[in-house]
Amino acid sequence: MYHKTGCEGFQCEDQTLGADLAGVRDEQTVVDRLVAWLRQRSLFVLAYGTGCGAIEIRPLMTSRYDAERFGIIGAATPRQADVLVISGYLAIKTLKRVIRSYEQMQEPKYVIALGSCTINGGMYWDSYNTVKQVDHYLPVDLFVNGCMPRPEALIEGFVALQKRIADGEKGGWLRYRENLDWYKANQRRVLGANMLPDDTSAWLQVGGQA
Amino acid sequence: MRALIDVPLMLLVTYTMGFFMYGFYRQFMARIQNRRGPPIWQNLYDNLKFFSKSETLSHGPMFFLGPMIMMAGAVTTVLFIPMLKDTAWLQGFSASGNLILVMFLMVVGPLGNALAVGASGNPFGVMGVTRGLTRLMGLEVPFFLGLALIMVQYETVSISAIMAAQPTLAEWTLVTNPLIFLVVLLPFIASLNASPFDVVGAPVEVYSGPRVEFGGRLLGILMTQNMMLSMAKYVLVVALFMGGASNLLELFVKVFVLFMLTASISAVFPRLRTEQAVDFFWRIPLGLGVVAVILTLWI
To answer: Transmembrane ranges (chain B) (predicted)?
Structure first.
């Protein structure tokens, strides 16, 4: 006979989300924790309206879902933003612009990818000019699946990201910095001769200050 | 010796008032728009977060010096405006300065801003600064005319003396000469960069204008100086029109009342275009100013 003992499937989300951070939490000093707490409390979002997901950002930011109560607010430029929201499929042309925007953001920075299209191509799985897995070109911190995810799902994604930041996650930007060659090689493979100049990423290669 | 305690205390009071007022402003706007809004501490969180971020881009030395000049302008403005009357505390260096000096110091910020943005060369930033300087042409004439009328009415340039001359409600400039308050109020809102005169940092028109190139720590400094300079201006208007304050609580209440007045005006009027703003300032507040000159000098 079936006995339910622990969590199952999506019920385990909280545990799996926090599992890899168990060691990190103990290494944090008080100042680290304070800074991490402040960072998660104040996320400036650069909502990159690449695809249909952009339509979900409006209700999220305005009266109905009011993301501002979580400290999430839109940023005017990439320089001021903390979170890049890639909302939907990325055409190869757009990928170049997204990478350029991402590299201009100041660290620490996070990427939330929205919708099935960013995970496996979604309904554009056989398209010749869209990117199938965004994670190969930019370090995605959190995927919110769905086609399209509702604003509630997006808020849940933001809250999960906030929890991870508060728990001391360093974020994908560190992964991007450490594996820059791999990311750049992937980007070069799809962009080809259209590859973006390295003036926004050069400081990463010479080991710029964080 | 007293300055050693006074200086950090005045900066702390201004900063605290700044983030509380602007935190409240965000909640106030949220309630108007039928939302819950962020916690009242949100501006403090935002500001401290920006200080913990990296600042990786460089546009030469002036790009870094600009925010420092602006911060210096804000700090000196705070220190030359006496916060309280009837006491020796929280006076800063107001004994060695006066209203004319404060009027000069308030322009240091836009100057630093223009220098930093000029160094960055970002077209949106330059557009924002151009809009700001155009607006400055409009707002400074009635604003300074109003302040000059105050000096004429009290026959002194010392802010402390003006405060001391308004001991009771009946002697407030707001009551004795309400026309000057009307002349100063709208340019005052514009100098705080609030709607409907927020042409400089319009987020969807010029992408936050002069701040477009700043992110991370420099943006944190800009936020701090903006909050502190705004509060210094509120304290100044409270001192000139509402009789100043004899303790911190009274100061806080008076600044809050004035803040609510300006916030309510900002909340209901949409943004004007730059030339509309300048037109408006040269017509209504300046027209009122001319009437106020006649009333103050000859009646």
So the answer is: 7-25, 62-84, 96-121, 141-162, 174-194, 214-241, 248-268, 280-298
